[in-house]
Amino acid sequence: MRICGIKLTHDGAVALVEDGQLVFCLEQEKRDNNRRYQAIDHLESVVSALAEHGLDPRDVDQFVIDGWDGDLESQFQVLSGAGPITLKGAPYFERHAEGLLTSLDGSGLMLGGRLFSYRSYPHVTGHVTSAYCTSPFAKTEQPAFCLVWDGCIFPRLYYVERRGARFLECLFPVIGHVYAAAGHHFGPYKRAGRGDWDLGVAGKLMAYIALGSVDEDIVAVFQELYQERFAGDTELARHYRADINSAEPLLARVHDFFEASALRLGDQAPEDVLASFHLFLERLLVSEMATAVERHAHLSGARNLCIAGGCGLNIKWNSALREAGLFDAVWVPPFPNDSGSAIGAACSAMVVQDGFVPLDWSVYSGPALLDGQLPSGWNSEPCSMRKLASILASNKPVIFLTGRAELGPRALGGRSILAAATSPEMKDYLNDVKLREHFRPVAPICLEDRAPEIFSPGTPDPYMLFDHQTRAEWRDKVPAVVHLDGSARLQTISRTSEHKVAELLIEYEKLTGIPLLCNTSANHHGRGFFPGAAAACRWGQIEHIWSDGVLLTKIPETELSPVDGALTLV
Fold this sequence. Notes:
Strand content: 15-25%
Shape: globular
Largest sheet: 8 strands, mixed
GO molecular function, one term: transferase activity
Pfam families: Carbam_trans_C (PF16861), Carbam_trans_N (PF02543)
Helix content: 25-40%
EC number: 2.1.3.-
InterPro entries: ATPase_NBD, Carbam_trans_C, Carbam_trans_C_sf, Carbtransf_dom, NodU/CmcH_Carbamoyltrnsfr, Nodul_NodU
Strand order of the largest sheet: 15-25-24-16-17-23-18-22
Number of strands: 26
Protein name: Nodulation protein NodU
């Protein structure tokens, strides 16, 4: 059974699941140096994705389109070979507690000159199915709560078990976009108006708040305005909660909330305001989750939690939920945001057929490296891991490209810029070449067995989804990966992993005694990962590029000759 999941809107992607195994997920932003959050606006992208894996649309048994905004259904305007067409989809979330797996059946999906029928499940359904089916709980047939907190919805709590899932409750009346909206009213991303929405602001704010300090008086202001405008028994709050199906009115009320906050907090430092707002939301999330878990204590099984939706990328909130002692285990997939929605769409159809069974998957299921003609001015030679480790040990960064790209928004060693973490200047250098703000952190990638020695808790974290503190005795040894508040967005990798980055870390450890490197994504500013070495060479900001055993080294301009020609990397 081949199921093709399609996410058409922002973070567009095509995924294929065959007999319970993820064959691929191709995110649009990771193809052809596309912009971050690229949508699918032409259905030829679906045909091309299948063709790259030797498939024709006729080889697919079922197509599934992820749902989107709409009261009862959504609509998508896309191009096909025959011109513009309109496709219908399911709404953002289910309309009754048992309706998570209720589909809208559609027709008119034009692929390769042929029409195909399809199904569409609510957008939230894909978050639930992708989170649970990739979790360790699915493998052991344990039930789990599933928290979905996405941009345009209140945090929604579900209960999932082998035979089905159901909606339990909304935890509190705050949409996920509230975090990014805070950045549009305070701090370095403040905007004059309400338009020009930036999906990347939320992640940047998570770094920026390390510059500030929590002020309980500021927290109290947010608590008061939250009751007045969102949660309390006031006219403003009742009006806000009256139409939870319309994103624009909800977002407008959020902007009103922050304009009222600014009037009260105008003389406060923006970094303190945002740090305090972060903590206000964190406390609200943990306390309301604790109340909900107690309210649903009658549900049998282990106390497990899956986290999905865009807010699942907030490592501090994930850690706060894990450390609250409410759950035996907490799982966050590497694609909790919409980058996993195509996988979720395919999983939804799988679940309807087979129940909530585990998906056989690998995080390295993205696009393969593209071959291409390299620009002039680069030398090419074979390069062992030991030699590459010595280059890194000499404090020179390397673009590291290997195998298929990682899924989700974070570089995990497949499309990374790696560097020694021993120099405090390295973080500033990497931020400069990537046009990032000075306060942005650079993540460590560390051998899993040594992580507890360097970080607290240092528990396995293969997808950079929890917060860790750098132990005091290591902060001066690896300053480039220590954030302003002493934390680190850690990625761990097992010493026995077959991935090439593990082999490199082992060689680097042998040379230096240090089991970690700086790791940041290999990409142009505002675009997805480099699709191949040629794109990295054209960027030209890092002089060493390692691509599946071949080292490319930029020739200094003083050594270039007129006959230096282009190479082809194969």
